[in-house]
Each structure stands twice: as C-alpha cells, then as structure tokens.
Amino acid sequence: xxxxxxSPGTGSLGLLGEQDVDAxxxxxxxxxxxxxxxxxxxxxxxxxxIATVASAAPGPTGDYTSYVDADQLAQWVEAAGEADTYVVxxxxxxxxxxxxxxxAFEELLVLPHVGLALDPEWRLQPGQxxxxxxxxxxxxxxxxxxxxxxxxxxxxxxxxxxxILHQFQTRxxxxxxxxxERGGLVVMVHADGxxxxxxxxxxWRSLKQDLPSGMRLGWKNFIDEDSPTFTPEQTMTEVSPQxxxxxxx
Length: 249
What we know:
By secondary structure, this protein is of the alpha/beta class. The chain has a single domain, classed as Alpha-Beta Barrel (TIM Barrel), CATH 3.20.20. The chain contains 7 helices and 9 strands; from the N terminus they run E-H-E-E-H-E-H-H-E-H-E-E-H-E-H-E. It has helices at 21-35, 70-82, 98-103, 106-109, 139-155, 197-208, 232-237, and strands at 2-6, 45-54, 65-67, 86-91, 114-118, 161-167, 185-191, 216-221, 245-248. It has an 8-stranded parallel barrel with strand order 1-2-4-5-6-7-8-9, surrounded by 4 helices.
C-alpha cells in the first residue's frame, strides 16, 4: 500500500489534507502507480487519516486529544471505499487509552476497507505534555486494543485488517516482543524517522532488529523533513526488506 498521511482540511499535518477528498484519491492513485514497477505485489492506494489529533490544550475531554469531525471523517472513508482505496484510522490519544479511542470508531472499523494505526509518540502518561517528551505504550495496551479489533473482525466475518504501530525509537514500545499475534489482523511496525538517508536507514536498522514473528514493516517519506525525500525506486530498492506500506507526510 502507498498512502497519503494527514487529516482532512489540515495541510500542516500531512499531504492528505492539502486537497479535497476527490483530489486526494487521485493523488494516492498516482503515487501507487509510481510504485508498481518496483513491486511484485499489486500496489493499493491508501489514506492514513489522523482521526484523533494530539493537542497542546486539555480539550473538552481533558485528555490532550481531539476527535476529527465524525461527518467529515465518514465522508472521506466512504469515498475511499468507492474508489478501492484502503483507509487506516490513526490515533493520537494523549492521556486517553488506545482501546477507548478505537471503540469510538467501531462504525467505521466494521467496514472491510478500514484498518487502524496506533501512534505511541502521542500516548501520554498522567502529567506529561505533548512536545515535551516522546510518548510510549505498553504491549499490554496494544494487545487489549488488538484483541477487541480481532473480535470485531470475527464477529462481522471481515477480511484481514491492517494494524499499524508507529515507531521511531525502541522506547516507544519498550516491550514490543510481547505484542501478540491476532487472527484476522496483520500487524506492522511503521518506521517514522525523518532526516538524511543515513539517519532514516539507521532508524530502519534499529526497528527491524528482533522484529516479532509475523510483523511486517512500513516506511514513511517526509516531503519537507527528509533530505532528500526518497523516490519510489529508492524506497523499494534501497530499503531492505522492501516495505509493505509506504506513507507520505
């Protein structure tokens, strides 16, 4: 999969929000086409939509996270489904836990083309604040969330769902080896490092060490923060093993 990352109507959070939904679908499809010559597997266009956004203020829930407008989110998810574009709902939960936030999107997660992403960078402990430290999450909390999602897949007889674990430091998931495999889910570690080519490759080498059995790997290309941004050919030929999911921020 090749995805646009971001939140609808908010260009500062990534490429996805730089245009309306129809133009974003076209952009994702064009990017996927650029990757196809370098992949033996069919390349599927995707959206990774930030569904809950980390915030500097406590917000109405007091959890330093805000929920994207439900109607707007549903519009993007529905349009993506009609265009054969996969959707991953990305959670930045603040001090709220991932399971609670995931359950808030059950109506969308029962759709066959919708998966889930957990971003530990934005998972705060009590007293912590965004941008003051990098968050982290335990395998136990991840396992609670994936257990609920796997049960949803089984209950509704859904195809396998993608679950992304964002990571650019090992401490973000300190006990990653304890993350459980789940029937009905494909779990993937997404390397979020930015910077020079060597910095990004260094993050990649670190994250793929001791990768639990069955976990796949994904890669993020930053348009502004990388120097330079990898081309599709570089992403698929210079990154080893070849990533299963590439997102653009």
